[in-house]
Amino acid sequence: xxxxxxxxxxxxxxxxxxxxxxxxxxxxxxxxxxxxxxxxxxxxxxxxxxxxxxxxxxxxxxxxxxxxxxxxxxxxxxxxxxxxxxxxxxxxxxxxxxxxxxxxxxxxxxxxxxxxxxxxxxxxxxxxxxxxxxxxxxxxxxxxxxxxxxxxxxxxxxxxxxxxxxxxxxxxxxxxxxxxxxxxxxxxxxxxxxxxxxxxxxxxxxxxxxxxxxxxxxxxxxxxxxxxxxxxxxxxxxxxxxxxxxxxxxxxxxxxxxxxxxxxxxxxxxxxxxxxxxxxxxxxxxxxxxxxxxxxxxxxxxxxxxxxxxxxxxxxxxxxxxxxxxxxxxxxxxxxxxxxxxxxxxxxxxxxxxxxxxxxxxxxxxxxxxxxxxxxxxxxxxxxxxxxxxxxxxxxxxxxxxxxxxxxxxxxxxxxxxxxxxxxxxxxxxxxxxxxxxxxxxxxxxxxxxxxxxxxxxxxxxxxxxxxxxxxxxxxxxxxxxxxxxxxxxxxxxxxxxxxxxxxxxxxxxxxxxxxxxxxxxxxxxxxxxxxxxxxxxxxxxxxxxxxxxxxxxxxxxxxxxxxxxxxxxxxxxxxxxxxxxxxxxxxxxxxxxxxxxxxxxxx
Length: 604
What we know:
Pathway: Carbohydrate metabolism; Entner-Doudoroff pathway. This protein is α/β, with parallel strands linked by helices. The protein folds into 2 domains: 7-185 and 220-398, no CATH class; 422-570, IlvD/EDD C-terminal domain-like (Glucose Oxidase, domain 1). It contains 23 helices and 14 strands. The strands form 3 sheets. It has an 8-stranded mixed β-sheet. It has a 4-stranded parallel β-sheet with strand order 2-1-3-4, sandwiched between helices. A hairpin with a 4-residue loop joins β13 and β14. α5 packs across α12 and α8 (160-168) packs parallel to α15 (306-316).
């Protein structure tokens, strides 16, 4: 028997609803006005319309005659990102599938889609976070033509899904479905990949060996298979009911993947305003859907980047959600999945063991998710507790049954750990996130003298010189959104991992981000207020004793910060177009609010 909703989840939900009452009401009023004002694209002038379908070729007459819904695609296709390469053929196929149900499809526009894996440790990483605002703005431009009765969003990776959703929510009077393309096949073992990275950091293998290892991991079209931000995005879209059920982790090229995309096209045509099952995005993404996204993140040990993205996506829908809400949910939501880097298997193993259908089913059974959310699919959120398959040529769904691998997936009644492993640490150094699900419990508390750095390259140089061979809290500051765009500091992971393996007590404290694949080293990240502007990290000095404790939620120093002046802020770097992103940096708000310039300037 399904248990009633958990008391903590109910309490947090009610608080979020109360805190969001005015802003949510204003958002929904705006969406209602937009829906009434743009109900008929044929209110456009003849000249406007002629421009809009001049290139529609075979669909031109159907659009002209308004024979059925016209669906807009916003695509993040490029063939440099392995995850987005499969999208190349999606629009032409979706046009064919739309005609099967009397609809038409046009590509409304494209968005940039950068790869954090390519830019890790490079200058381009300083554009990464604000590419999310750029993607949102590109989505808004794409949908500004008032030609569409529904929206298909084609995007997967790190900032792309949050950016697409934030932009689409400003057109929340339209029904919207995310269409994924699935993960690449499993390559070399994650343990072997991690071993080679650490050997390279120690100088024990060369670049050729490292490159061969990386190519064994990232080798074909599809999403990278570790459970980082991209795959956490797909999990959240399932938890919010924005996919066709079970679409997240079906591989590219499979017959099942094609049928799921065909089904998404048909469904989008069916939930338009002129039909009898209207499901606008503004009503699908509500407070309970945002809570479900956070629950999924915690239950599966997902990317720390979503401590920034969830508040930002919520704000775009008029919803207020912060780290206190996330931390309280974490105390109630158990960890039911261990996917690399939290475990040994990747997302393909996760999917084969039961995947999202299993996760959602066990959460619903234990009263640990909102069952009553409005989804894009018929049958409500319970439909997402089933897994898709093929019966001949027909798309079907079935109960995933028990876990296929209890080292990968466990029931919520017998989890890997009783909490979700995303903890808030705070004190006289500010507020930060600590991903405890990836860290052994004996390392949840680290207290040691600190070494202060202002970029990750300096940390790696100190490591190579042996200066960090001791118990140490590595502080990397001036990495926040207003300083340099809050880059990921993933290049620190191998060096800090080596120090930890050598027996030292090591932790990281930073106002920057770590990768969505944050690993085994304890880290207090996204520290806010950031160092730029006089935040506490700007007053730390080498040798100050710093304590990071996930058990007690502590982030503090014994140093007298009040008696000190803040360190001088480094001059912003030029090149790689970073100077043009100054407008985003200057106007960005804090990490806990979502680190968005766009939302801050809009007063949302």
